[in-house]
From TrEMBL:
Belongs to the rad1 family. Pfam families: Rad1. This is Rad1/Rec1/Rad17. The lineage of its organism: Eukaryota, Fungi, Dikarya, Ascomycota, Pezizomycotina. Keywords: DNA damage, DNA repair, Nucleus. It comes from Penicillium frequentans. GO terms for biological process: DNA damage checkpoint signaling; DNA repair. The keyword DNA damage applies. One of its GO terms (cellular component) is checkpoint clamp complex. The keyword DNA damage applies. InterPro entries: Rad1_Rec1_Rad17. It is found in: Nucleus.
Length: 331
């Protein structure tokens, strides 16, 4: 019998990096789809982490769909009347990460539970783990059938090591934390490093509450505050930049060269639209959409447990961009 799923990767570092971003929980629900593996974790229905291992991360990805099974999640295929199963199960995420560490991917032990920083150097690049030593390695994920263990096989220089993780049935009421996409009143996209550094700066005062404040009309336009800790409240503000001013000119003034540039831009509708877009939010943001309902006034204010936000720091530290979204229900 052919396995239900087989995925082979020659670079487990990508897999480990993605999965470690949601490593704040001990167990994860895995769903196998034709496009990749979906891992989800949660704690008390107040925080949820999702990681998707796209099939492009594997050198070989095989998913053998089977007819509908009452014990597995099913989805209707629009091109076929038969139902295709997308199996899902629960595995130990901590055991899976430890298994991937066999590849030499390791981390510096965190000095305390609050430390969210990641190592600045990759141990895989040290003198004792040169790239040449990491060649000729392959990692194979395999799931034979419903109820079978989730197998991880590591082959190196003719030696193969296999780790089989016991799979469990997921809870019947398990579902994603809902986000009302039709009621989004705040959407901010920015470089992840800037948000990560801001959270790390606030974390130094050991706060218990993270306050978020955003407005498109009043200062501060976007601000994060840490409160509730043993020290005083600290705030990080993202200010609006002076997009129309040239270097060396006073605020509100333009040089002759600047005036000439503005004249050219006035004839270029595309550049004019791009310049207008850049004024819509703080300089640190790529997208800044804040539209609170009339009942809230002109400012959106939200409060979160800092301990929960801290668990997302690992993902922010390795990402390129981050999206902050809020709905009217959450405010």
């Amino acid at each position: 019998m052919e396995p239900l799923f087989t995925g082979v990767s020659n670079n487990a570092n990508h897999l480990y990096t993605l999965l470690s971003c949601i490593g704040f929980a001990s167990k994860a629900t895995v769903q196998i789809t034709p496009e990749g593996l979906r891992f989800s974790v949660e704690e008390g229905r107040v925080i949820q982490g999702l990681a998707f291992l796209d099939k492009s991360l594997f050198t070989s990805y095989t998913f053998n769909a089977t007819p509908g099974d009452a014990n597995q999640a099913t989805i209707s295929d629009t091109q076929d009347s038969d139902e295709v199963t997308y199996p899902h199960f629960v595995v130990s995420l901590s055991a899976l990460l430890e298994t991937l560490k066999i590849f030499g991917i390791n981390e510096v032990q965190e000095p305390n539970a609050r430390d969210t920083s990641l190592p600045h150097t990759n141990p895989a690049s040290s003198a004792f783990a040169a790239p040449a030593l990491l060649m000729d390695r392959s990692c194979t994920f395999q799931y034979l059938s419903h109820g079978a263990p989730f197998s991880i096989a590591i082959a190196e220089a003719g030696v193969q090591t296999t780790c089989e993780l016991v799979t469990y049935e997921p809870d019947a009421d398990e579902s994603d934390i809902p986000l009302q996409r039709d009621a989004i009143i705040m959407k901010i996209i920015m470089r992840s490093a800037w948000l990560y550094n801001s959270i790390a700066e606030l974390d130094s005062s050991a706060p218990t509450i993270l306050k978020l404040s955003a407005s498109s009309k009043q200062k501060p336009y976007f601000a994060l505050s840490g409160a509730g800790g043993p020290f005083s409240e600290s705030t990080v503000e993202f200010s609006m930049g002076q997009h129309n001013e040239m270097p060396g000119t006073a605020p509100g003034q333009t040089s002759q060269a600047s005036q000439g540039i503005h004249k050219v831009l006035a004839d270029d509708e595309t550049s004019q639209a791009r310049a207008a877009k850049s004024k819509l939010g703080p300089t640190a943001t790529e997208t800044f959409m804040v539209s609170p309902p009339s009942s809230m006034g002109e400012r959106i204010k939200q409060r979160y447990r800092f301990a929960l936000v801290r668990k997302a720091a690992r993902a922010m530290s390795v990402a390129n961009k981050v999206s902050i979204r809020g709905t009217s229900r959450a405010c």
